[in-house]
Amino acid sequence: MLSEEVREALERGAPVVALESTIIAHGLPRPRNLAVARELEGLLRDRGVVPATIAVLDGVARVGLDEHGLERIAHQDNLRKLGFRDLAPALATGASGATTVAGTAFLAARAGLRVFATGGLGGVHRGFTLTQDESADLTLLSRTRITVVCAGVKSILDVPATLERLETLGVAVLGFNTARFPGFYLTSSNQPVDWTVQDAEEVVAVMRAQDTLGGLESALLIANPVPGTDQLDPALHDRVLAQALEAAERARVTGQAITPFLLAYLIEHTAGASLEANLAAVRGNVRLAAEIATTWAHETRTTP
Ligand code: PSU
Ligand code: MN
């Protein structure tokens, strides 16, 4: 279900940016998460872009939340985490949940949205050969025509393996003003990217080329690094992440719980510094998504 504001924006060809709700519900601590949800929407509105935060509330898929909806995803207990495969069961049973990158990208594309901003994508977990844990974000993005602005993939993951999977799955990755794939909390993961773009116009040219080529509906990833001044200290990152991975193994955390566990561990054991880096990354991604959506809406209105 589209909110009135999003429906009206789409009808007049105004820019809209999709935002996910799992980062709010399961990725950020309360009560700060609600302030962040509002702030991200505000960053878009300030730029003349309509925000579409996406979630499932009482069995209804919602594209665009009102203030009450934002409060629910930020503060409601036992809110589920919904990937793509969880959407139908949630709708059928009247459940409420926050949508991951996979769940959000699917609903956004179905609603006719083309630009989506998040923090870091899911990907291949360290220890994959034992657990086979790879985020459903990757395969969903290989089948969904949407442009996702992200700070790379979460650095708790096996980043080189995730990049290999994205190549195999046919998902294009563009470094935004960088030849290095970003490292989520860190400006660089030290992995190369094959393509670099300089501005929103260049991103939109690639989106157009995707549509001209037609065929397989894959996503476009815009890898936008957190500024060096806002990144987490790399030595602190490496040290605390190693402890977090050990703690997760000791506590036998697996499945959907592992990503929230590791993110929360990092926040606690960096005294909040990882949270600030995460937020700086998300804010930068939302600002860039606003520019891309504005350029895209303008071109789509003026070119038949
Ligand atoms: N980006 C963030 N924080 C998050 C996430 C992304 O800055 O919490 C969420 C996204 O919703 C992503 C999910 O889809 O983590 C990945 O979870 P999993 O590894 O279980 O697929
Ligand atoms: Mn998983």
Describe the protein's architecture and organization.
This protein is an alpha/beta fold and 304 residues long. It has two domains: 113 residues, Indigoidine synthase domain (Indigoidine synthase fold, 3-Layer(aba) Sandwich), CATH 3.40.1790.10; 179 residues, Indigoidine synthase domain (Indigoidine synthase fold), CATH 3.40.1790.10. The protein is built from 13 helices and twelve strands. The strands form two sheets. Strands 1, 2, 3, 4, 5, 6, 7, 8, 11 and 12 form a ten-stranded mixed beta sheet that branches. A two-stranded antiparallel ribbon has the order 9-10. Helix 3 packs antiparallel against helix 4, helix 3 runs parallel beside helix 13 and helix 11 crosses helix 12. It starts with a helix and ends with a helix. The structure holds pseudouridine-5'-monophosphate and manganese (II) ion.
**Top CATH class of the largest domain:** Alpha Beta
Helix-strand sequence: HEHHEEHEHEHEHHEHEEEEHEHHH
CATH architecture of the largest domain: 3-Layer(aba) Sandwich
Shape: globular
Number of DSSP strand runs: 12
Which ligands does the model contain, each kind named once? pseudouridine-5'-monophosphate, manganese (II) ion
Span between termini? 28 Å
Q: Calculate Rg over CA atoms.
A: 18 Å
Uncertain runs are: none
**How would you sum up the major sheet?**
10 strands, mixed
* Discrete helix count: 13
Q: Which percent bin holds the helix content? A: 40-55%
Tally of separate domains = 2
Strand % is 15-25%
Name of the CATH homologous superfamily of the largest domain: Indigoidine synthase domain
